Automatic annotation (TrEMBL):
Protein name: Uncharacterized protein
Transmembrane spans: 110-135, 147-171, 259-280, 287-313, 500-523
CC per GO annotation: plasma membrane; plasmodesma
Domain of life: Eukaryota
Leader peptide range in chain numbering: 1-29
Keywords, in A-Z order: Membrane, Signal, Transmembrane, Transmembrane helix
């Protein structure tokens, strides 16, 4: 029976495998340990504990603004070693514009960077020693072990299959991750665009209100000047909102597209490398096998680096989800969340809400003044146009003003018509007019006066209808709703698919790494087996 004698190259490779397993084996988690974080959602609220009743929004916002300087988003999750601060724990919370946060989250992928460096250095050293010994101490092959030959072939098949499975997981995960990431960005951009469009609509209503008059009665000059001032601020805020959100979206989408292309290329190259290496090893093409070993040596190091990069991306995504959830529970006037979706300036939103109420209030006052002082009065024949145009019949109902003098909400009184249906109701009070503009039939509104009143009502109702939107804008409710939807609908899938990619990368890296080693072992055993058979013959 043929025996297996000790071979220094084989022991060198097997020892290297053992060393890599020791390096890659996770240890008990400590503050200094590098480990991938999972998504966690805080159960505490500002000023209270979990399961305590929530305070009202106004009170909670007041408390948040008073304590905004002490609010740290995702504080527990972002506690990582900071290489820029002597490797002390980072305590600044989620803030993508903070260099210490960026350094700490980047350092979370250091374990894979270290593995890549160790693999590149040690395996390169092993290859150098093998080449040196092969060139300087070349000996004829002698004997081989059937057990070593069979085991190397079995492990080679298993690791090739593992590489194929890992590439499949990686490809599937990157596709799903790219899809859900793109959907998330599109949702965020659509919310910002809707908000900006609503702001522009409010600005358009205000601009139209300046030129609206009923029977030559217009808004006062000071109100018209006020409209000019607020229009500039509204347009500036809407443009800033659209521009910043669009820019952030493009930057993030570019990163996602780059990552997707890199992962697809990596999956294809590593799959091809594993299959070709297996095929060349089986066929005994040693030169091609050694070429693929050198190529794979570099690619595996790059794959480990990409593992670290994607672990960093995974942690940033998870940090963002946790920070959004905590921000929704503890909203503040100014946080790091402004770098993702900027809120419209609070002062501008508040001023816009106030000005729209004033304009709506005065437009209703203009219409009611015409109804009370002209349309519903019966003038003597000696009074001529435009005050007396032979109006007659039932009195025109007054328009309901939605605001009191102090701009607080006001309920409609009996006999008043609401802004939503006033134009329809007033159609029953229109008279037919002669060429001189006098009513020839029963009615108290000429077509021209009715059209002017309807135009004023439409503008006033439009401004009134945008009131709730401006209130939400004032306290940044649209951002809170956006973050809530992302946290509930998108974050779970983002977490799941980043895990798929992470698992796929680890499987591909480990499988191809071990395949490289067994390519060399199997090629040697096969060469010895062929030589032994020829020698025996």
């Amino acid at each position: 029976m043929l025996c297996c004698k000790a071979n220094p190259f084989q022991f060198l490779l097997l020892g290297f495998i053992f060393f890599l397993f020791v390096v890659a084996t996770p240890t008990r988690a400590t503050p200094a340990t590098f480990h991938p974080h999972t998504l966690r959602f805080s159960g505490t609220f500002l000023g209270g504990k979990e399961n305590e009743p929530l305070v009202s929004w106004d009170k909670r916002r007041h408390l948040a603004e008073e304590n905004s300087s002490s609010l740290v988003l995702a504080a527990e999750r972002t506690r990582r070693r900071d290489p820029l601060n002597d490797f002390k724990l980072y305590t600044g919370g989620y803030n993508i514009s903070n260099k210490h946060y960026a350094a700490s989250v980047g350092f979370s992928g250091a374990i894979f960077f270290i593995i890549a460096a160790v693999w590149f250095a040690l395996f390169g050293l092993c290859l150098s020693l093998i080449c040196l010994c092969y060139c300087c101490c070349r000996r004829e092959p002698y004997g081989y072990s059937r057990l070593c030959y069979a085991l190397s072939l079995i492990f080679l098949i298993l690791f090739t299959i593992a590489a194929m499975v890992g590439c499949g997981v990686l490809y599937s995960g990157q596709g799903k991750f790219h899809g859900i990431s793109t959907s998330t960005l599109e949702y965020v951009v659509s919310k910002a665009h809707v908000t900006a469009e609503n702001l522009r609509n409010v600005s358009a209503y205000l601009a139209t209100a300046k030129n609206v008059g009923v029977d030559s009665v217009f808004l006062s000059p000071n109100v018209q000047k006020m409209i000019d001032d607020i229009e500039k601020k509204i347009n500036s805020s809407s443009n800033t909102l659209s521009t910043r959100t669009e820019k952030n979206s493009r930057d993030i989408q570019d990163v996602l597209d780059t990552v997707r292309v890199a992962l697809i290329i990596l999956a294809a190259v590593m799959l091809g490398l594993a299959l070709l290496g297996f095929l060349f090893s089986i066929l005994g093409m040693q030169c091609l096998v050694y070429f693929l070993v050198i190529l794979g040596w570099i690619l595996v190091a790059g794959t480990f680096v990409l593992c670290g990069v994607f672990l960093v991306l995974h942690n940033v995504v998870a940090d963002t989800c946790v920070a959004m959830d905590e921000w929704v529970q503890n909203p503040t006037a100014k946080t790091a969340m402004d770098d993702i979706i900027p809120c419209v300036d609070n002062a501008t939103a508040q001023e816009t809400l106030l000005r729209t109420k004033i304009v709506s209030f005065q437009l209703v006052g203009v219409v009611d003044g015409i109804i009370t002082n002209i349309s519903n009065r019966n003038f003597p024949p000696v009074v001529g146009p435009p005050v007396n145009y032979n109006q007659s019949g039932p009195l025109v109902p007054s328009l309901c003003n939605p605001f009191n003098q102090d701009l607080t909400d006001r309920p409609c009184a009996a006999g008043e018509v609401h802004l939503s249906n006033a134009s329809q109701v007033w159609k029953g009070y229109i008279c037919q007019v002669s060429a001189s503009g006098r009513c020839t039939t029963t009615g108290r509104l000429t077509p021209d006066v009715y059209n002017q009143m309807a135009s004023a009502v439409n503008i006033s109702y439009g401004l009134y209808r945008y009131g709730p939107f401006l209130v939400d804008l004032q306290d940044c409710a649209f951002v809170r709703q956006t973050f809530t939807d992302i946290t509930n609908s998108y974050c779970p899938k983002l977490r799941r698919y980043t895990e798929w990619i992470y698992i796929g990368l680890v499987m591909v890296s480990a499988a191809v790494m071990l395949s490289l080693i067994f390519w060399v072992i199997y090629a040697r055993e096969r060469r010895h087996r062929v030589y032994t058979k020829q020698f025996m013959e």
